[in-house]
């Protein structure tokens, strides 16, 4: 139980700190954005490019702050026995509207008789949302996302999320989960960092297999017996 409390505390402290900083940055940002906008009519033509850089970089800070506030939002952390399939069903429902917009179909394969997993459901939801959103975003022309959940040997539950997107170059796979690593114009590079951290707190692991032009597979493994393994 002590171990369990320590982990919950750590998740909460990181979350609160990040959310606190994000919040503090937000106020001066509002002032900056407002006054920069007021200056626009006075900008000389030869300085128009500087003005554009300033406004687009401000917009970028804005999206990082917003993502941080969403990802790091402190929540009650409660590890308990949960049905992973139920957690995943909720997330698939939540993302189905966005999937339709992208012409993406979900295929889900959930093993029946799956044992419960000792986990923090709200944290795991963040992980599933991040990984599935990434999968949707790399398929601008639509495609299929296959989500499978099954138990494997050594008391593990495996959650695999496979897309038919752009894939990831071999030398970039190790960059995944690094803070601010993004290849998207409007990306923040925070989603996977947070996801990796959460899975680590569950004593689990994330593996990535990818082939450029074919797609990517994220494989999450969670121990069934979290306490014994921690
Ligand atoms: P963001 O989505 O804001 O870019 P993430 O941490 O979620 O940040 O992802 C970091 C980067 O990892 C992405 O910009 C992308 O380059 C790569 N990536 C993540 N998931 C996938 C995927 N399913 N297919 C291809 N690339 C991916
Ligand atoms: Mg992302």
Automatic annotation (TrEMBL):
Give the keywords, sorted: ATP-binding, Kinase, Nucleotide-binding, Phosphoprotein, Transferase, Two-component regulatory system
Keyword Transport listed: no
- Reactions catalysed according to its record: ATP + protein L-histidine = ADP + protein N-phospho-L-histidine
> Which EC number(s) are documented for this chain?
2.7.13.3
Q: Where is the Histidine kinase domain?
A: 20-226
* One GO MF term: ATP binding
Q: What class of enzyme is it?
A: transferase
Q: What is the name attached to this protein's record?
A: histidine kinase
What is the native source organism of this protein?
Neobacillus driksii
Q: Which residues of the full protein are shown?
A: 124 to 353 of 353
């Amino acid at each position: 139980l002590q171990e369990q409390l320590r982990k919950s505390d750590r998740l909460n402290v990181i979350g609160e700190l990040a959310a606190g900083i994000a919040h503090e940055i937000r106020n001066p940002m509002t002032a900056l954005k407002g006054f920069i906008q007021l200056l626009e009519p006075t900008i000389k033509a030869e300085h128009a490019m500087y003005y554009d850089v300033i406004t687009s970089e401000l917009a970028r800070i804005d999206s990082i702050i917003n993502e941080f506030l969403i990802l790091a939002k402190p929540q009650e952390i409660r590890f308990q026995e949960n049905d992973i399939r139920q957690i995943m069903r909720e997330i698939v429902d939540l993302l189905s509207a966005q999937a339709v917009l992208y012409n993406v179909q979900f295929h889900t394969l959930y093993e029946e008789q799956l044992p419960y997993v000792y986990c923090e459901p709200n944290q795991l939801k963040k992980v599933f949302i991040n990984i599935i959103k990434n999968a949707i975003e790399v398929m601008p022309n639509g495609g299929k996302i296959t989500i499978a959940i099954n138990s494997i040997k050594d008391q593990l539950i495996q959650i695999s999320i496979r897309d038919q997107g752009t894939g990831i170059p071999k030398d970039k796979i190790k960059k995944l989960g690094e803070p601010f690593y993004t290849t998207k114009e409007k990306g923040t590079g925070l989603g996977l960092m947070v996801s990796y951290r959460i899975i680590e707190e569950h004593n689990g692991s994330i593996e990535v297999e990818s082939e450029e032009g074919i797609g990517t597979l994220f494989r999450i493994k969670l121990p069934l017996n979290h306490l014994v393994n921690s």
